[in-house]
């Protein structure tokens, strides 16, 4: 199943996507939030669609696409989870997952405009598979338990300012990850039964020129391991977002220029949708 949120910022409505049709979910839920994802919301949406009880939104194509989930309570990220990206970053592949955090106001719509932070000269792109938590995950017994706690998957762009992340960091990465709008998410949330999540192609482009092209099959730590591992240190709540790392092909490699005002970045994950962001200097 495929879910989205459409409409102006702060006024998004929850929808279910089925083929070329878009259906209004407001009779079932106010939003795509933790309560909807952790309860019977997804099952109720499927039943209502099957019974023809959801009204179709005729002008859906004209509406802004928001992030497919409300602002999460946590955005947890895994760093250097592809060996080739670790190498281009000047690091050995990690032996355990590298964890850092973004803040909730980084999560925006997939095509929303992005401001390059003041003083930035090294704003970078990172296409990533995102996991949306569906059931609280705490001290899971095994990685095999993880999928039962996943509501679905999303495309995410883990935008990063490398000077802030690496040179002004004080040893932590988050300074370079937390500018407002630095986590475009969506366009859709797709439920696990429809996603071959360890075999997804990830790609990115800048001004139409190819940058990244890889597969989640190349992850060092797979999705199931990541959720299990995180649950040993924290409690993941319904609606939380976990980013699983980016493959090689970013500006940090030295092979490509960093993002400049006027640039357009596009990213795509097969089956999870495509994003497009235009960039300008922060006011």
Automatic annotation (TrEMBL):
One term of GO molecular function: metal ion binding
Keyword Metal-binding: yes
GO biological process per UniProt: small molecule metabolic process
Residue intervals of the Fumarylacetoacetase-like C-terminal domain: 75-278
InterPro entries: FAH, Fumarylacetoacetase-like_C, Fumarylacetoacetase_C_sf
Entry keywords, A to Z: Hydrolase, Metal-binding
Short name of any one Pfam family annotated for the protein: FAA_hydrolase
Keyword Metal-binding recorded: yes
Gene3D superfamilies linked to this entry: Fumarylacetoacetase-like, C-terminal domain (3.90.850.10)
Family label: Belongs to the FAH family.
Protein name per its UniProtKB record: FAA hydrolase family protein
Organism: Labedella phragmitis
């Amino acid at each position: 199943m495929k879910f989205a949120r459409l409409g102006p910022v702060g006024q998004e409505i929850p929808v279910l996507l089925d083929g070329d049709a878009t259906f209004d979910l407001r009779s079932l839920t106010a939003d795509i939030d933790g309560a909807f994802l952790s309860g019977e919301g997804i099952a109720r949406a499927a039943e209502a669609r099957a019974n023809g009880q959801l009204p179709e939104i005729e002008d859906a194509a004209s509406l802004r696409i928001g992030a497919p989930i409300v602002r999460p309570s946590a955005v947890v990220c895994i760093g250097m989870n592809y060996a080739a990206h670790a190498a281009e970053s000047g690091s050995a592949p990690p032996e355990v997952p590298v964890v850092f955090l973004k803040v909730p106001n980084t999560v925006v719509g997939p095509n929303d405009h992005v401001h390059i932070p003041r003083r930035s000269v090294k704003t970078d792109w990172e296409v990533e598979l995102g996991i949306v938590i569906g059931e609280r995950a705490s001290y899971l017994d095994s990685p095999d338990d993880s999928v039962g706690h996943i509501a679905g998957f999303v495309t995410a762009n883990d935008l990063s300012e490398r000077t802030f992340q690496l040179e002004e960091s004080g040893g932590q990465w988050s300074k370079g990850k937390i500018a407002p709008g630095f986590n475009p998410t969506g366009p859709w949330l797709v439920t696990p039964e429809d996603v071959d999540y360890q075999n997804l192609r990830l790609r990115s482009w800048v001004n139409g020129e190819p940058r990244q092209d890889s597969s989640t099959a190349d992850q060092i730590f797979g999705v199931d391991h990541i959720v299990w591992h995180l649950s040993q240190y924290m409690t993941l709540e319904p609606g939380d977002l976990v980013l699983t790392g980016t493959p090689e092909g970013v500006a940090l490699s030295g092979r490509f220029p960093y993002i400049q005002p006027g640039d357009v970045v596009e990213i795509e994950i097969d089956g999870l949708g495509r994003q497009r962001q235009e960039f300008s200097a922060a006011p």
